[in-house]
Model the fold of this input.
Amino acid sequence: MNDLELQKPQRQSILGVAVIFFSNLRKAFNFFLAVVFVNLGTKFRILSLGLEEWAYILALFFLVISYLQYLKFTFYIKGDNFVIEKGVLSQEKINVPFARIQTVNTSQNIIQRILGVVGLKIDTAGSVQNEIQIPALSKEHAQQLREYLMERKYELKEENKDEASSEKTLEDASGNFEAGSKPILALNIKDLLLVGFTQNHFRSGLFLFAIVNGYVWQFEDYLLKPFESYLEATAESFLAQWFLLLPFAIIAFLIISVVASLVGTALTHFQFKFFLGDDGMRISSGLIAKNTFNVPFEKIQYFKWESNPLRALIGFYTLRIKQAGTEAINDRKLISIPGIKARGLINVLDRQYPDRKNLAYHPLQVDQLLFLQLSLWLGLLPSLIALGINFFIAEIIWGYPLIACYLALILFFSYRYFQSYRVKVNPDFTLIKRGWVFPSTVLIPNYKLQNISLKQSVFQKRRAVATLQLYTAAGGESISHLPYNEAYELYNYLLFCIESSKLKWM
Amino acid sequence: MIFENLKIDIDQIPSLAQEDFEPLREDYLYMRMSSRILFLLVAAGVGAMFSLFAKLYFGYWLYPILGLILLVIIYEPLAFKIKGYLLRDHDISYKTGLFFFRQTTVPFNRIQHCEYNQSFIGRLFDIASVKVFTAGGNTSDLSVSGLSKERAIKLRDHITKLSSAHE
Done:
């Protein structure tokens, strides 16, 4: 493996200049966008140079900077550390002890794809630095480096606890997935469309709205100023017409949301492949930016799988693999597998937790307060407010049955949600099922827990219920409205499970 | 009894009893009260300036601040009674919250590192805190405040020793 010559400082592929250049350019583009946008078409002059000239000068400047950044970016191995040195003006030296390396992933954005290089990301569960990455390496080099790093990491581990897992050989541990191995799940175009169509459109719509809104506010002054007088004049007639416009607005929102879901799905899950290897899972996907995630089995903290009414119809689940990480990078840590069928789900669970059904589960019942609170806050209170508005201000006759319908609906959904809430515990696992419309299931091995909180507000105290929060290295899950005594017993029991466990949890 | 069908008898599992918790140093209560009252007095000073120079009606700031001071005097001693920590062989717990009670336990075999802190005001009252961190988060998972400096350092060393024994 030492053909990598990692003892002395190494540079990445020369194409790294281009990768760094484009990433700088993108940052600059975001930064100067407002300036360019505002001055487009106007006579922009600084030091008797126009917009175009300045753009060239800046581009040249960035090219030089990028080249310097490339020159200054070196990586090598020193003792038991992987070292990255970078920075033009202020030197930065990042030391990553092999033992701290959690996983090594590769990613490709569009520039990297065109140039045929990959970025290598070293993940350290946030203990050293959030993101350590080498922007451009040739594919073979990246693969070799990845294997080398993982090997060194496991070597170290083996030294530390020689007899504990001696049957695990090094070849096993290096995280190899042969190019020819068959994925356990691959999404074809049809599956991709199905996943896209069954997305939570409301959320993608809101998400898009938030992004667009953010951009609009950034340029609010310039975008809206020309129309201001017009807007004011028509504002009143607008208000009068909103009733007419509302259905169109809703339809437009729906269509845009569905399109947003489809585009989002295509971008992130294109050519989605999910492999289940001997020592870990691997996910690769992406249309413009291609990402590959490698998840060693022992790094998985727990699983969560979800569905929604549309997905339930075609039998699709979304499986989320929760991996250790800091909150800031947790988004990408929650690696998800969309469009997995029940069979595949069981396969994954059987592989990871073969003994999950060996011991009987003890069911826990949540208190009715959950139902009461949901119907009070979501149902009764809004209904009363709407009733008041309708009675005193709006006075729409058909408003009353509408409010009654809403209340009945909320009561029904709250009750179904309350009924669907299931908590089951056995000596090895905690299982939380909840949700009727959006069912989700969480399966946490008890020994993966890190700390436990018991919370009780004054309202909960009066009903003698409590909320239990279970934290793992990959985030927490909470169980609300458990009867206090049972919550306390569970609290003690789970602590006992953690403290008596000798298994490595990370 | 729940869990009767499990392989371990529930009675054998050690239980965290509320009365086992150790109260915090009383100076911690005085520290919290005086720092809050000090803050309110500064706010009152600002209000007084406005009244003097800008002819603001003094009742606008005096009564709310008096009310808040009263609230601090009533609330803090009650909340203080709730607070406490408990050190056991395998874990450390902390409880707090009068209206929103919260009790957290972190087992030693899950602790990544442990910190000792003393604020500026804490120095005046000889009050220090110990923060305990687990993996995967940026914020501390458990923070035991209201210890004397000597005790806090002892506690930190104890936790560090026990948690590193599990590595």
About this structure: Confidence is low (pLDDT under 50) at residues 162-179 of chain A. The two ends of chain A are 27 Å apart (CA to CA). The longest strand of chain A covers residues 449-457. Chain A touches chain B at residues 125-127, 324-328, 359-360, 362, 364, 425-427, 449-458, 461, 471-475, 486, 488-493, 495-496, 498-499, 501, 505-506 (CB under 8 Å).
